[in-house]
From TrEMBL:
<protein>
    <submittedName>
        <fullName>Nuclear transport factor 2 family protein</fullName>
    </submittedName>
</protein>
<dbReference type="Pfam" id="PF13577">
    <property type="entry name" value="SnoaL_4"/>
</dbReference>
<feature type="domain" description="SnoaL-like">
    <location>
        <begin position="2"/>
        <end position="127"/>
    </location>
</feature>
<dbReference type="InterPro" id="IPR032710">
    <property type="entry name" value="NTF2-like_dom_sf"/>
</dbReference>
<dbReference type="InterPro" id="IPR037401">
    <property type="entry name" value="SnoaL-like"/>
</dbReference>
Amino acid sequence: MSIEDRLNIQELNFKYALYVDTFEPDNWAQIFAPDAVLDESAFFADALFAGRDAIRSYGAKIKENVHHIIHLITNHIISDLTATSGRGTAFALVETMRKTGERLRFYVRYDDEYVKIGDSWLIAKRKLDKSLPPEKVTSAT
């Protein structure tokens, strides 16, 4: 498909990171298709979310429990791109500081399915896997 399609799909990753990192669950949910699936079960129990409302609620829960979060997303490859669908893989380094003070680092692989609805590319399915085990971060003293 067009370069514009590819850029719009790549921008989904940037918006995903921006909206979760700035605690904007409503905007975060809007980059997903209405019936999208977000699967973080490789990291947390009960972390399979189906539909925008469930994804929005999960974003609100992140906002309640996390003080700081940052996603550094890279190596995004788009494949099987048609006029209305595609697949992608990307990797991320994610650091969080929970409101309890606990700091965690995650090494994430995203396996995505994209769908074009009207003029907008959206995430239809995002499955997260561990590319390395998560780790607790301690401060140097």
